[in-house]
Design a protein that fits this description.
Elements (H helix, E strand, L loop, with lengths): L1 H27 L8 E7 L10 E4 L2 E11 L6 E7 L10 E6 L6 E6 L11 E3 L1 E3 L4 H20 L13
Parallel strand pairs: 1-7, 2-6, 5-8
Antiparallel strand pairs: 1-4, 2-3, 3-4, 5-6
Length: 166
C-alpha cells in the first residue's frame, strides 16, 4: 500500500512539472495573432507560406499572414497580412518569402524602406521577391559544379609523368 502511495505522489509531481512546462512553452512561443492594419503583397510564388505564418522585420514578429488568394488577372499570389498598428511601413518597403531553416517553415520577411510616405490601411507592398525552392538551389549548385569541371579540363595540365608547368 505504501509503494502505491509513493507512485501516486510521484505521478502527480510529474504532471505538475509537465503542466508548468506547457504553460512556459505557450507563453514564450509568441503564438498570438497580431491585430492591426491590413496590407497586401503580390508574389510570383509563395510555396510553403500559409495563413497564420509570421510577418517579421529583422527577425521580430510584427504581423501575421491572414489569407492567401490568387489574382485572376495577373495570376500572382496575393498575400494579405495584418501588421501591428505601432509599426508604420514606408511606401518603398520590400517583402520576401524566407525560410526559417533548411527544413523549417516559411515566413514573410519585410524590409522597411526609407520613404517619408507610409503604406495606408489596405495598401500594397510593391517590391516583392519569392524565395527559390530547394530544387532550384540544388540545380544551380550542380550546374555550377559541372561548369567548374569543364573549365578545369582545358587548363595547363602537364602530360603524364612530367611535373606541372608554372
Amino acid at each position: 500500500m505504501r509503494r502505491n502511495m509513493i507512485e501516486t505522489v510521484l505521478g502527480a509531481v510529474v504532471l505538475v512539472v509537465a503542466g508548468f512546462f506547457l504553460i512556459f512553452a505557450y507563453k514564450s512561443a509568441d503564438l498570438r495573432k497580431v491585430e492591426g492594419y491590413t496590407v497586401t503583397a503580390a508574389f510570383s510564388s509563395i510555396a510553403g507560406l500559409s495563413a497564420g505564418s509570421d510577418v517579421r522585420i529583422s527577425g521580430v514578429k510584427v504581423g501575421t499572414v491572414t489569407s492567401l488568394t490568387l489574382d485572376r488577372t495577373t495570376y500572382q499570389a496575393l498575400v494579405h497580412m495584418s501588421i501591428d498598428p505601432g509599426i508604420k511601413l514606408p511606401k518603398d518597403t520590400s517583402a520576401m518569402v524566407a525560410s526559417e531553416s533548411l527544413l523549417g517553415g516559411k515566413f514573410l520577411a519585410v524590409e522597411p524602406g526609407g520613404d517619408d510616405q507610409m503604406i495606408a490601411e489596405g495598401g500594397r507592398i510593391e517590391y516583392t521577391q519569392s524565395s527559390p525552392g530547394l530544387e532550384q538551389l540544388l540545380g544551380q549548385v550542380i550546374f555550377s559544379l559541372q561548369n567548374v569541371g569543364k573549365q578545369g579540363e582545358g587548363s595547363s595540365a602537364a602530360p603524364a609523368g612530367q611535373p606541372p608547368r608554372l
